[in-house]
Amino acid sequence: MSRLLLSSLPPDQIALPGASHDPGLVLLSYLVASAAAYTALALAHRVSQSVEARYREYWRWVGALALGGGIWSMHFIAMLAFQAPLDIAYDHRVTLLSLVIAVATSYLVMRLLGRERLRSWQYGLAATAAGTSIAAMHYTGMAAIRSAATLY
Asked: Of the candidates 124, 109, 102, 16, which has an alpha carbon nearest to the alpha carbon of residue 60?
């Protein structure tokens, strides 16, 4: 399989030899993502149980911060886990933009999940919104990388 992936590189390019991931940071990344997902679901339930509109809105934003912040943290920790024999830096403005994207789109997920009763299609819509959120944050976060390497 790796041969198939490597064969798509241009002939004058090679994969980065000596690159690896720190297993401890990869595990931490997974734990952060799991905790964020659990917290967001618990907060979505709290939204659905809130009687007053101002409390529902408050819990939506708390949930969006938990979910979006967790998604972003998981991704950034995983990026820090990547160890390569070259200098890697991050554009702070683009990195912050990826956090804003994660939180803002997670607010939409919290609006979708924070209902007293959900139908199957509403779960599907929330899952699609969450996946889109993760993809948008991921590609923005990857665009923040500043390195001599070419990203494919």
From this structure: 109
CA distance 64 to 109: 8
The pair phi, psi for residue 22, each rounded to 5°, is -75, 115
Report d(CA 61, CA 18) in Å as an integer.
42
What is the C-alpha R_g of the chain?
18
Helix (H) or strand (E) holding 144: none
Using the structure block, give the residue that is written with the tokens 């070419």: 150
By C-alpha distance, which of 40, 108, 110, 37 is closest to 74?
A: 37
8 Å CB contact between 60 and 7: no
Render pLDDT for 45-79 as a digit per residue (tens, 0 to 9): 999 999 899 999 999 999 999 999 999 999 999 98
Q: Are 56 and 50 in contact (CB under 8 A)?
A: yes
Rounded Cα–Cα distance for residues 15 and 5 (Å): 10
What are the extents of the domains in the chain? Answer: 21-147
Is residue 129 within 8 Å of residue 105, measured between CB atoms? yes
- Quote the pTM value: 0.81
Q: What are 35's two structure tokens?
A: 């905790």
